[in-house]
Amino acid sequence: MGAEIAFRLNLVHGRCVGVRIPAEVDETILAGLLPEERGFVSTLAPARHPSWVAGRLALREAFCDLGIEPGPILATRRGAPALPSDLAGSISHKRTLAVGLAARRENVTSIGVDLETCPPVFASVEAARAQARPDLRTRVLTQDELARLESVPEKDHRRVVTLHFSLKEALYKAIDPVVGRHVGFHEASLTPLPDGSVAIALALARDDGAFSAAGFWTEIENHFLTTARVQRT
Ligand SMILES: CC(C)(COP(=O)(O)OP(=O)(O)OC[C@H]1O[C@@H](n2cnc3c(N)ncnc32)[C@H](O)[C@@H]1OP(=O)(O)O)[C@@H](O)C(=O)NCCC(=O)NCCS
Q1: pLDDT digit string, tens, across residues 91-118
Q2: Which of 108, 134, 154 is where one domain is finished?
Q3: Among 78, 92, 105, 226, who pairs with 115 as Cys (CB 3.0-4.6 Å)?
Q4: 3-state DSSP helix/strand/coil percent for the chain, to nearest 5?
Q5: Mean pLDDT across 139-155
Q6: Residue of the nearest CA to atom 10 in ligand 1?
Q7: DSSP secondary structure, 54-69, as one string
Q8: Among the three residues 75, 108, 141, which one is the final residue of a domain in this structure?
Q9: Cβ of 3: how many Cβ atoms within 10 Å?
């Protein structure tokens, strides 16, 4: 397909494929897209082409691994990947890597995926303090999450905050297409466990209906790779 596959994983919320983002989108890489997708990408700012194309290739490849041909993957009005109603999928990209997460909707209402670069492991509290992002901490974490952070060694705080940030981005991508509105960071409180499972307590600010949600996290190629699943109850 022109772009390099970085990994293929079976995750709890779907099949996940990673694709290396090409430096340039040439004809060989464009050949991996369907004609409708090639038409869509030509309407985007050139700077978005490599990540958009790599994300589409990753998501299509994840569906192909499930034996599904999803057809052209364009975008909804809110920016999510547009898919047939029986399919669920999500995309994320960081500087060099794009991922697609794919599932049949029979098992899930909606899914989301996110990638964030892992922060460095700080050797000391002083080194960690020098690079702390207190603004991000209070923007992303709820009061419950801030209380739980107190029991984590300070040199690991940035890592924990980044993991929560990534999980909330994955959750956002799962829930936004269902509720059709901006969901804020303080509308969910997360408890990530060392085994990769994540308990999610939703506290939606509007009456969007009843949902259950669950998260998952792992690390790959110095990135947090996080996923979320939302189901109507
Ligand atoms: C939309 C948002 C999630 C994108 O995340 P990001 O880290 O900036 O970028 P990523 O590379 O991880 O993801 C981008 C992809 O998200 C997907 N996406 C964009 N808007 C979306 C939406 N409304 N719903 C679902 N997926 C969406 C797209 O596939 C996009 O890639 P593409 O344009 O190439 O197709 C983020 O910018 C945002 O607005 N967050 C809202 C606040 C939030 O996270 N709240 C937490 C709730 S608990």
Answers
A1: 999 999 999 999 999 867 899 999 999 9
A2: 108
A3: 92
A4: 35, 30, 35
A5: 96
A6: 92
A7: HHHHHHHHHHHHTT--
A8: 108
A9: 21
225 and 120 co-located in one domain: yes
Nearest CA to ligand 1 atom 2: 169
Per-residue confidence band for 126, with pLDDT thresholds at 50, 70 and 90:
confident
Res. 135 pLDDT band, cuts 50 70 90 = confident
CA 172 vs. chain centroid, Å, equals 9
Nearest to 198 by CA among 171, 221, 222: 171
* Ligand 1 lined by 215 (C-beta under 6 Å): no
How far, in Å, CA of 44 to CA of 34, rounded?
16
Beta-bridge partners for 23: none
* Span 164-182, pLDDT tens digits: 999 999 999 999 999 999 9
- Determine which residue's CA is closest to atom 40 belonging to ligand 1: 169
For residues 233 and 212, is the Cβ–Cβ distance under 8 A?
yes
Domain range for 34: 5-108
Q: Tell me the CB-side half-sphere exposure of residue 34, using CA atoms within 13 A.
A: 12
Within 8 A by CB and 6+ apart from 24, the residues are: 50
> CB of 80 closer than 6 A to ligand 1?
yes
CB atoms within 10 A of CB 36: 12
Place of tokens 């009005």: 77
Q: How far is the CA of 182 from the centre of ligand 1 (A)?
A: 11
Question: Residue 84 has which token pair?
Answer: 């047939």
Pocket test of ligand 1: the residue of 48, 73, 92 to mutate, having most ligand atoms within 8 Å of its CB, is 92
